[in-house]
């Protein structure tokens, strides 16, 4: 007969998760899934608007119908899951950027701030960009820098590129070429064409010495340049050292 201690290893212990807690988690998953479905429908409608709005009247009935569809779906996503930051961000864009019926820029700004405070990187980047406007009555540079850094923490490519430009020019912060290079490098890895160009340009100027304790190896070369669909050249760096 097997010892009781050995048998005990194969006996399942009673679950410490209560059925009520399991039902809560299941309900939360269901709400998240429903919200994502609404966001996808709204995003598809908005994508179609972006495709045709430059070539037609913004007040055309087809565009207005698509904008209403997008707005309704983003609002339904928030009703399904009030904690969804993506729905907040896209709804804020609708209110602030598009001629959607019932648009309110104040509502859009409030939604954008909420989404940024809740940790959405797209919202943090957008809010940082909005706060960088010149205003004699509002000192917003430091606030913009705060939200851009939050987006950079999540490796948002646009925020990385913009923060790299800020460090490179010394605009509102101390000039720091090493930090600028790091930002451009990470943004280029994420596919940002402008950052790749800036990073390649700094490499060609020999700025990489700042990040290296030893002289540059001959392997630090720009080995390929190609055209992206935006018409921009992207430098691909071969055999570079990870810092």
Automatic annotation (TrEMBL):
It comes from Glycine max. It comes from the Eukaryota. This is Binding protein. Pfam families: Sel1. InterPro entries: Sel1-like, TPR-like_helical_dom_sf. The gene is LOC100791197.
